[in-house]
Design brief:
eight-stranded parallel sheet; 229 residues
């Protein structure tokens, strides 16, 4: 099946989820996750209307960024090590995986060196799984206060990786929690922090995520097919 046909199916599913939850399809953006996907396939997705590319690894993203000249946004969605921040800022329009004060300070420092603020989402561990990265939900507001004075960060949203469960309905509590945390963060009225975006939901559960308020869904396999090993 062609990538354009896959995207048509995904958009119909998003439309259905929006109808069920009283939302507009304009409120949801597809982040095409291109981990292990070759450049021609990424370009095919862009030609089919994709405007955001999501990459997990800095070096892989950098290689593709240098080859793809189409006007798209690049989101870094994987765990970011501090020693790769400088490279990440050479291509990333948004870093979705800020999960520590230490990392936030390094991003701020490198962004200051470049003289340009960078948009970031705070990653939250909503599943409670020890294997996952992210700020603990109970610590989020304190975390936001802790990065509020980093002037070269524009904190605009939250991101989570839901529990890896076969039934999407069982993942819903992760997405509901992230929405509640966004509202709690905004209610704190922390200077310069306005949480607008919720990046949540992947191939198996993005419809439930949209119903719970996702503004960005990170989809790879449903667009590009099974990943190369």
């Amino acid at each position: 099946m062609m990538i354009s046909e896959n995207l048509k199916i995904i958009r119909e599913k998003i439309k259905g989820a929006c109808l069920r939850s009283g939302r507009s399809v304009d409120q949801v953006k597809i982040v095409a996750v291109s981990k292990t996907v070759d450049v021609p396939a990424v370009e095919e997705a862009i030609d089919a209307g994709i405007t955001i590319i999501g990459e997990n690894r800095v070096q892989e993203a950098w290689r593709k960024f240098q080859k793809i000249e189409r006007p798209v946004q690049w989101h870094l969605i994987g765990h970011l090590q501090t020693n790769k921040v400088k490279r990440a800022l050479q291509f990333a329009d948004v870093i979705e995986s800020v999960d520590s004060i230490h990392l936030a300070k390094e991003i701020n420092l490198r962004a200051q060196e470049r003289g340009k603020a960078v948009e970031v989402f705070v990653e939250v561990n909503t599943s409670g799984e020890a294997s996952k990265f992210g700020v603990h939900p109970d610590a989020l507001v304190d975390f936001l206060y802790g990065i509020a004075d980093l002037h070269y960060l524009r904190v605009t949203g939250l991101m989570t990786v839901g529990a890896f469960l076969p039934e999407p309905e069982r993942v819903r509590p992760c997405f509901s929690l992230l929405r509640q945390l966004r509202d709690k963060g905004n209610a704190a009225q922390i200077a310069k922090i306005e949480l607008e975006h919720l990046s949540m939901g992947m191939t198996n559960d993005f419809e439930v995520a949209v119903e719970e308020g996702a503004t960005h869904v990170r989809i790879g396999r449903a667009i590009f097919g099974e990943r190369k090993k």
